[in-house]
Design a protein that fits this description.
By secondary structure, the chain is mainly α. It is 80% helix and 0% strand. Helix 4 crosses helix 10, helix 5 (96-102) runs antiparallel to helix 13 (256-269) and helix 6 packs across helix 7 (124-141).
Length: 288
């Protein structure tokens, strides 16, 4: 392994740790912070962390953002708005452990969408791998009971989280369409700005319908964590990693999320992994 590969691996090992914490915090704070407010606070705090370092670059690259405005909006909506909003909504109806395991579908979805939208050809073995991974996802969603598919007894929380993973997979694919020389720190800041603009009215609507934060120390801590660790640091490191090794290889590191998360969920939330979790995870990894 070259020094460059080792450095890229170290960079990409950290975002899954921060994202695993994001699921745990999102689940723990589900009763204290409404989902749209949590998603908005993530972007606001992350943007505040980034601006002291990225404002000069963002202002310099503004003409280039306009040049790629459609791609920038698409990426921001998929990775910063839809993904976060759906995860926090889904965590109201499913466990952090389930959400973390479903997070491992992202590398599989990246390959699948690459074949569909980018016309990347798949060998028979790859098709089998995708099918096996999809079977693993079904095992988790159906809680290990195949009869649930007949009676349509799905967990709405799991389905919402799975939709979030679809959105993040598209985000990962679209990121590589930006020019390699476009500064990633400024690009991330531009995404945060768009996300704040979109999420602010949604959080206001949520507030007007009666969903209010508790204002406790725990709720404030949750909003700070998702912004600093899961929002700013994780996304910055992930974007740098994609620029170095590409979306497919970077996506492999996402499998560390349930490994980190299993320990955190058990220690902090008292959640246990069941047999269907392990079978589903083995099928997803085996398929990949």
């Amino acid at each position: 392994m070259t020094c460059k590969s080792l450095w890229a691996g170290m960079i990409l090992a950290l975002p899954p740790l921060f994202w695993a914490g994001n699921f745990v915090v999102g689940r723990a704070a589900s009763a204290e912070v409404p989902p749209m407010l949590l998603a908005l606070s993530r972007q606001v705090v992350a943007l505040a962390c980034l601006l002291p370092f990225g404002w000069t670059v963002m202002r310099r690259d503004l003409p280039r953002y306009w040049q790629h405005w459609l791609l920038l909006v698409r990426v921001s909506l998929a990775g910063m708005v839809v993904f976060n909003a759906l995860v926090y909504v889904g965590l109201h109806a499913t466990t952090a452990s389930n959400a973390q395991l479903l997070n491992s579908t992202i590398p599989v979805l990246i390959v699948l969408f690459g074949a569909i939208f980018l016309r990347q050809r798949l060998a028979p073995g790859q098709i089998f791998g995708l099918a096996l991974s999809c079977l693993g996802v079904l095992t988790i969603i159906l809680r290990g009971d195949p009869l649930r598919i007949i009676t349509l007894e799905f967990s709405i929380g799991d389905l919402i989280v799975l939709a979030a993973m679809v959105s993040f997979s598209l985000f990962s694919l679209w990121l590589r369409d930006f020019p390699a020389d476009l500064n990633r720190l400024g690009l991330l800041g531009a995404q945060f700005v768009i996300a704040v603009a979109v999420l602010t009215p949604l959080a206001c609507i949520e507030y007007l319908t009666g969903a209010r934060p508790s204002g406790s120390v725990g709720s404030i801590g949750a909003m700070l964590y998702v912004g600093i660790a899961a929002g700013f640091l994780a996304n910055l490191l992930y974007m740098v990693g994609i620029a170095r090794v590409g979306p497919a290889r970077a996506g492999l590191f996402i499998h560390l999320v349930p490994l980190y998360g299993a320990v955190m969920s058990n220690a902090l939330l008292g959640e246990d992994l069941h047999v269907h979790h392990l079978i589903g995870m083995a099928a997803i990894i085996g398929g990949l």
